Amino acid sequence: xxxxxxxxxxxxxxxxxxxxxxxxxxxxxxxxxxxxxxxxxxxxxxxxxxxxxxxxxxxxxxxxxxxxxxxxxxxxxxxxxxxxxxxxxxxxxxxxxxxxxxxxxxxxxxxxxxxxxxxxxxxxxxxxxxxxxxxxxxxxxxxxxxxxxxxxxxxxxxxxxxxxxxxxxxxxxxxxxxxxxxxxxxxxxxxxxxxxxxxxxxxxxxxxxxxxxxxxxxxxxxxxxxxxxxxxxxxxxxxxxxxxxxxxxxxxxxxxxxxxxxxxxxxxxxxxxxxxxxxxxxxxxxxxxxxxxxxxxxxxxxxxxxxxxxxxxxxxxxxxxxxxxxxxxxxxxxxxxxxxxxxxxxxxxxxxxxxxxxxxxxxxxxxxxxxxxxxxxxxxxxxxxxxxxxxxxx
Length: 394
Ligand SMILES: *Cc1c(COP(=O)(O)O)cnc(C)c1O
Hints:
The chain is of the alpha/beta class.
């Protein structure tokens, strides 16, 4: 049974501050009013800062997948070649979306838990110079992998005319992502991960190059609700708006959450905080004698995937952690179910939540008979957090 006191440490949705939640209880306003337009404009401007782009940004009512769909459906028509490296559940989703629009998908399967190498993209583009879109997931939430997106962007630009579509749903706000500098044509985010807003909004950035492609595809594109030209037309009106009724309360919440990131904590501090927390979680887990799932050197800064040790059952581990210590962590997806667990450390959480989670994990492992000395993991995390947090500008 869900309990209000449970601590949610999964890789999205993430806990939402009561200040952000309270925004949602404000009276509903007309989405065609000047007042709503102001909120929309503020949200778009703050999203541009977080995406670090001078290009366009749109906010769609729908989950993150809505904008993955928008990125593909607006730029791809039947028979177009789309290159998708697959190394987890979310990169697989790009394959499924592209196929659903009749694209000729070049699927490059990597072992789950391995990082994507820019050289692989280079080789694939040389073999297939007519690829029109390369779709990549930055932070593969299902495996805890973080890919070198700057280097990948460089290769795409050097080797081809392809658009660079990048899913940053579980990293934007908690990792160093620079849409313009990295040459990302369409970047996709979601409200419920590092942006610490309830689920239900998706964001997409659109570059000049992407607009040229969208124009070129004209009416060969197959989308209605997600037609980015409609979003652009509406946002460029004298009183900017969205084409269809947006989730008004979610926009109230988003404005409050983004204001915190941009104007209170600061984006740089938020990124640094996520880096420190991920370092603390990884180091603590290793100290406990557990093994990380992702390839070393490419670990996510927002979610840590850990192999479940011999003799421990996933159900017991996560079940006890929840029932006895009130901390909820995530299991593995698809073939990793029962083999790994995942700790989400993203969004508006503080060192308090990170330390509680590590402590609960240690106690749970001890309860289940795992050979562990209590306090080793938590001690390591304390060390990293106490020195790390001093480096964050106040
Ligand atoms: C959560 C997530 C998604 C899917 O988002 P939904 O909001 O569930 O549609 C896509 N990609 C990544 C990397 C994610 O972490």
